[in-house]
């Protein structure tokens, strides 16, 4: 499913009307009716509904919603917050229809009057501003938004909560905090931004018949869901053997942090790898091996439990490797990561301490002839780019795309809505996962799953998007059936992979 900017959404609308021959009034009617179908499942017809409308298409949707609710026996009042001359075109047409149906419209711009109407309503429908907002919300909308947010009443937004920017790049704004948002046709970019998504509340898409054929295949942003995984995840051949599903190498760990590579190795095996070898310090091998008996081990040179040197390794005997988990950030470990980047002519995934190791040597990454996958969280992304964490969270799509293109990497920016970017500018948003993953070790498990997926018979883009989905899906299934978000830990996610694969396969 495509994720759109405000500009792209306007272009789809324009194409539908000018090229597709669909009357804009029909599209507005379709939107309003589709939203009313959703509202009637939430609101009893004994409840009093107040519809707040502004100018533009969002206000027009509000008039359609009000008329259809009125027709279904609901008590509805529309508060028009702009002057009559601001209601134009399709919105004016639907305003007149509402009047023809004996609908009540009050032209109100005084916030105290709005408060009086709100005090007598059970439900408020926000159809004030839509996706066209840029900059700070003006009066009277700002005060109205603040009043609505103070009240404990069911709040439903049309397409986007008023005041929320449709696009990224804005961190400070005044906006409706909706309980529900009914998003028209396609999700807007802000729905997947940490600063914006909480304002949407629970959200659902409503389809109104817009064409999606206007999209170029370049620079697409899409969601990745279960249907995508089922279509792309490789099936096991009856005659396959352990070598058919990838021989992976995991480099990392230390005497004080053996658990990270242990979880990475176990997750890689549990998600389908044929063979996994762990390269770590001798002091850590016994504890790791007791947890992950299926792996094999290489003892690295060490000093005081920290990796200091590489043994002789034939990297060509592996299909891919992951490096960085639990290594520490000393100069000796950093030099090892850089050497592996240069010497290993296979796909590499770099995580955790490995990302710290490469921050000053990113040209080494671009020079590689084989794929490189980086898996930073926002703090690590800030370290790699020089942006602040706030800047990363405000514009994660822009920053990720720019970095992936500039350095020729596959970038997985981890977060509430994990973003996967490829070197060509395409991006995907993962749709699984929950707050239970906000624990130490979750990233190590994800690295193991990704390593396994990278070695299966699928494109690298499919491998990374599938890996992120599977990781989050395990947490979702566990929280719904066995665990809570409070007690879920990373090793649970590894165990939960069984349920995910049973569901998908």
From TrEMBL:
Binding site for K(+): 58, 126, 162
Annotated ranges, domain YjeF C-terminal: 225-504
EC number of the protein: 4.2.1.136, 5.1.99.6
Cofactor note: Binds 1 potassium ion per subunit.
InterPro entries assigned: Carbohydrate_kinase_pred_CS, CARKD, Nnr, Ribokinase-like, YjeF_N_dom, YjeF_N_dom_sf
Catalytic activity field: (6S)-NADPHX + ADP = AMP + phosphate + NADPH + H(+); (6S)-NADHX + ADP = AMP + phosphate + NADH + H(+); (6R)-NADHX = (6S)-NADHX; (6R)-NADPHX = (6S)-NADPHX
Stated role: Catalyzes the dehydration of the S-form of NAD(P)HX at the expense of ADP, which is converted to AMP. Together with NAD(P)HX epimerase, which catalyzes the epimerization of the S- and R-forms, the enzyme allows the repair of both epimers of NAD(P)HX, a damaged form of NAD(P)H that is a result of enzymatic or heat-dependent hydration. Bifunctional enzyme that catalyzes the epimerization of the S- and R-forms of NAD(P)HX and the dehydration of the S-form of NAD(P)HX at the expense of ADP, which is converted to AMP. This allows the repair of both epimers of NAD(P)HX, a damaged form of NAD(P)H that is a result of enzymatic or heat-dependent hydration.
Similarity comment: In the C-terminal section; belongs to the NnrD/CARKD family.
Oligomer and partners: Homotetramer.
HAMAP family the record matches: NADHX_dehydratase (MF_01965), NADHX_epimerase (MF_01966)
Protein name: Bifunctional NAD(P)H-hydrate repair enzyme
Taxonomic placement: Bacteria, Bacillati, Bacillota, Bacilli, Bacillales
Gene: nnrE
